[in-house]
Design a protein that fits this description.
single chain, mainly beta, four-stranded antiparallel β-sheet, 0% helix, globular
Length: 87
């Protein structure tokens, strides 16, 4: 009997950088792939904001202090999740 071996995932083609981290007023985003949307979630899973324009820098000054998840959705349908801290 042959044991189950999961299929190896294809190599990542998109990379995402979110800086500065921690951030105070503006969060900058750079990616190797073409982004279609960026969504920010609280640690509770609540959707806080979504941006389809001006994706390279997002004004986070109105967010309360804490930790957040940012999901970058690429035009090829893939997505990457990163964490950041609002200080």
């Amino acid at each position: 009997m042959v044991p189950y071996v999961p299929k190896i995932a294809a190599e990542k083609t998109n990379e995402l950088n979110v800086y500065p981290n921690p951030a105070t007023n503006v969060l900058h985003i750079t990616a190797t792939g073409e982004m279609s949307e960026v969504v920010i979630f609280a640690t509770t899973g609540e959707k806080i904001m979504s941006e389809k324009d001006q994706i390279q820098s997002i004004d986070i000054s109105s967010l309360p202090y804490g930790m957040y998840q940012i999901v970058c959705i690429f035009k090829d349908g893939s997505s990457i999740v990163k964490s950041f801290i609002k200080s």
